[in-house]
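Page 42, continued from yesterday. The earlier attempt failed because a stray header line got pasted into the input along with the sequence. Redoing it now with the clean sequence only.
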Amino acid sequence: MNHTHDAGPAPRPANDPRPRSVPRGARPKENLLSPNTKIHRRRAWRLVPAAVLVVVLALLVAWIVAPEPSHRYRLVFANASQVVGGGTVRIGGTQVGTIKSIDLNDRDQAEVEISVSGDFAPLRRGASAVVRAQGSAGIASRYIDLSPGAGDEPALEDGATIDVERTTSQVDLDQIFKTIDPKTRAGLQKTIGGFSQWYDGREAEGNASAKQLPKAVVAFRKFAADVNAESAQFERLVTTSAQAMSTLSGESARLTSLIQGAGRTVEALGSDTRSLTTALETTPGALRQGAGALRELRPATGDLRRLIDASDAPSRTLLPFLRELTPVANASVPVFRQLRQLVDTPGAGNDVLDGLRDLPPLERSTRVAFPSGIKALRTSTPMLGFSRPYAPDLMAWIRSFGQSAATYDANGHYFSAAPVFDAYDFQDDANGGTLTPKAPAERGRSAALSTGNLKRCPGSAMRLLPDRSNSFVDTGALGNADCVPAQTPGAGR
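This time it went through. Structure tokens are written below.
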């Protein structure tokens, strides 16, 4: 057996044109300063910004596409109110989530599952929900309006349920119409038809009025804000109104009679459509005047507010006053009933209205009687002016003679009189006085007696008073130019 030994490759001749092979592991050294190497490095650095941009775009897309963290809650409504899956959930008009599903629980109530984004979650204890409509028409126009609850309340867990006591379903128009009886619905149809007749041919005026509606809504919103700011006073008003309603409920019969009377009044107004149309035509002008008056009244609101604040304490005594007024009002009902009978009683010539009807014929009679009466009064005025001041003297004369004839005996009344003949002089002494006969020629000449007193003034029938006030002397209509004030008892001759 022949063994041969491999002595390696045979040596190549020096003039062999083939390239020489490099042993394994022995690579030729690269020339770092060659032009090709520099070009490759520039290209590599140019690709770095593009790679960074691709990474940023990938991260942005991942952030947009990634699901936003949210919280889910279940809302229980009496009915779903036509909300649909995928509908919006709002807080203060801002969309904060969507409606995920709508189910029916074992109590035949709608359970609506919603998701709320993490920026507006979690909801707090006391949160509530209301189904609202973006417009009166449309099926998918309903959304859920959340009230997240007070910030100091405990947070609700994810998946918590807000019960039906904290939710409010939407009331549709057909539900309102179902609560109205057929007679009322027919009346409502007639009312709407009447409005169409009123505005027929007045569309421009109606549009002008509609343009003013937003201003009225804004004013009403401000009014509601003012009322909300005075919630304590408004609560007191509601409480007082409730007490008043309780008092009225005890007078149901009279209240029913009042409502029936108001119904008859409304029927009478409805029969006079021409006057009602005229009133509606004049309403815009009246409203414009009212708006101007309210603008002028606005500076007085401060004083009015102070007046209301000042009247707060006195108003607390109003309820006891009304309690005391109730018996008076009850007692006055028969009085007013009798007054009504006095004014208007069935029959002829037995009440005030009949008397007023008789006044025109009476007026025709007075056209002749009154001038004659006026003439008679003017003629009799001087006589009455003369005799009127002597009325006290006449009454005194009647009284004095009545007293003198008041005594009586078995034969009847008798009159006591003391005639004076001036036949004696009286002189007072220790024995009680002495009467001395007068000569006939001296009789009737006493200083205490006088004759010819035919022109006495009124009030001078008695002795003159120290202040001389009982002789009435007047230079006006009651004057008596012929009377003599000196003619009084005891004045001498």
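Notes: The chain has 13 helices and twelve strands.
Reminder to self: strip header lines before submitting.
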